[in-house]
Structures are given as structure tokens and as C-alpha cells.
Amino acid sequence: MAKWGEGDPRWIVEQRADATNVNNWHWTERDASNWSSEKLKTLFLAVRAENEEGSCEVTEVSKLDGEASINNRKGKLIFFYEWNIKLAWTGISNTGVKYKGHVEIPNLSDENDIDDIEITVSLAKDEPDTNLLTLMKKEGVKKISSALETYISTLKTEFTQGMILPTVNGEQSEPTPLPVRKPDEHKASEPAAGSGNALKSKSVGVKIPTCKISLKEVFLTSPDELYRVFIMQEMVQAFTHSPAVIEADKGGKFQLLDGSVTGEFTELVPEKQIAMKWRFKSWPEGHFAIINLTFSDKGGETEVCLEGKGIPASEEERTREGWQRYYFESIKQTFGYGARLF
């Protein structure tokens, strides 16, 4: 973080009435979902493997669910992508017999190394055994893995053009203004100044536009049971389908979704309320939103109201969808608490 008096030409938002995001130095985000979808389809449909037994090729991208984005934070690019993919492949033996099969890639994510990405190849239902399945599992998987590497590499090079603009010492591009909102202004806390050196050690806080969200959901279970789903480590791991660390006490820390979400419980009232400091891994360092969950007994059902504040404005939709998808919908599907939606 730049300090007053150091003359860093990028750190001039505090000196501008319009708070222009000069050189994209502050937090900016670019949605890469549509670009990623087209890129992945192109790469997958080019996959082909062959040997003396015959040939196999990917013929269809039957499922491509997920999202991708790139964030620029003080000249550092942070990549987020998460995809659940299903492909269809066709094999033709050297005698002309056709076979059909499927490929599943459930965990293409920035959280996983390329070698950790699971690629499962199978034959379609009722298809007879064939050596082409072995071909697809070996050479086909290599080609698919190569396609994934190309996608990740291209995302980090080709699609990032213009995310970090030249500085004032070079040829400067037109800066992109921040979206117009009515935000809550959040200012990062300032470190304590050292004795006798206050002016030199005091850092200027970064202001980012923030917003509030509200969600309401009904679950077919009791407040007591639903409360435990949110604070018991085994149950959190069940509905997130990933390792989690939960310290269910006031001041206790939590981490879930492979570290993508972290925070701290600030209030725990059994059957009534859970309050927490909560953040996505990709948010500005040290920035937490305040999430408050209240549980209301509706006679055989439980209504949960979520109030969130201090959420980065650029993350509003992603945060709302994340809670709806990875918490509420996943809890219903995992534990059978399905009910009508509001």
C-alpha cells in the first residue's frame, strides 16, 4: 500500500474528487464466463486419439456449468474459475463398429492443480466392452488434460489484455470508471504507527464500494436441526462435498469449500441466530462481510433470513448466488429439507 509523501503515481484516488480507478490500480473485475465457455468447447471438440484399434474423438460438450472471472488488485491478477463438465465421445474400431461414451470433469477449478483434476471416461449404457475405452482412458485423457492446460494458460494471457494498464510514465489508456451504486463505504483498518515514526509508517486505507444483500429461504426441518447443519463440521462437509474446518464457538474460525470461504463466528445463539465475519478468498485481503442468519420456527418448517453487509459491490451477484447454490440449495439436496422458494 502506498504511503503519503512517497509519490507513487498510481495511488492518487484519495487526491481525486471523481475517485477514478487510475491505471486499474484498485480492485477491478472482468467476467470470463462466456469467453471460457466458447474456448473450452473449441478445445474439447478438437480432441482426437487413435491407434491400431481405431479412433476416438469428443463429439459433444453436453454439460458446461460454472463461471470464471479475473480480478486485478493493485497490479496483481487473481483468477477464479470453477467448471463442472460432461462430454460425449465416439469411437470407431478398425472394423467400422461405432461406440459411444462419456467423459466427466467435475472439478476444474483454480483451487486444483492440473494433475489433481479428475477426468472420468466411461462407455454409454448398454455399449459392449471395447479396447477403444482403454485408448480413450489413456491417450484421450492426455489430450483432454492438454486442452485444460491450454484453457488455463490462455485465460491467464490472452483474456487478461488490458487488465493492468500502463502507468503514468508510459502510454496511458483510458481508465475504467467504477460502477455507479449507493454503497456502504468500507475503509480498511490502518496499522498502528510506530513510536516516533508515525507519518512514515501510517498507511492509507483502501476504500472499496460495498453493498448489502438479503435472502429468505424455508426448510422442511426444525430450527434446532437446521442450526446444527451450519455449525457442525461433519454436516458442513456433507453439504459442501469438501473438507471443512469449523470451530463452533464465539470467536471460532471456519474454512470451507477448499479454503474458498473463510471467516469467524461473532455470535451463536442455538436455534435462533448465527452471525459471522465472512469472505471469499478472492476478495481484497483482510476484507470481510458481516453475515447474519436468523432462524424462525414456522410450525414444521424453518424460515432462514440472511442479511449481509460490507460485500464488495462487484461481488454482489456472485455472493448472492453462492449462498443460494452452495448453502441453501445444497443443504436441501443433501439432507432432504426441500421446500418452496421465496
TrEMBL record:
Residues 167-199 are annotated as: Disordered. One of its GO terms (cellular component) is endoplasmic reticulum. Residues 29-161 form the Activator of Hsp90 ATPase AHSA1-like N-terminal domain. GO terms for molecular function: ATPase activator activity; Hsp90 protein binding; protein-folding chaperone binding. Keywords: Acetylation, Chaperone, Cytoplasm, Endoplasmic reticulum, Isopeptide bond, Phosphoprotein, Stress response, Ubl conjugation. It is found in: Cytoplasm, Cytosol; Endoplasmic reticulum. Its main location: cytoplasm. Pfam families: Aha1_N, AHSA1. One of its GO terms (biological process) is protein folding. The keyword Zinc does not apply. SMART domains: Aha1_N. The keyword Cytoplasm applies. Acts as a co-chaperone of HSP90AA1. Activates the ATPase activity of HSP90AA1 leading to increase in its chaperone activity. Competes with the inhibitory co-chaperone FNIP1 for binding to HSP90AA1, thereby providing a reciprocal regulatory mechanism for chaperoning of client proteins. Competes with the inhibitory co-chaperone TSC1 for binding to HSP90AA1, thereby providing a reciprocal regulatory mechanism for chaperoning of client proteins. Belongs to the AHA1 family. This is Activator of 90 kDa heat shock protein ATPase homolog 1. The gene is AHSA1.
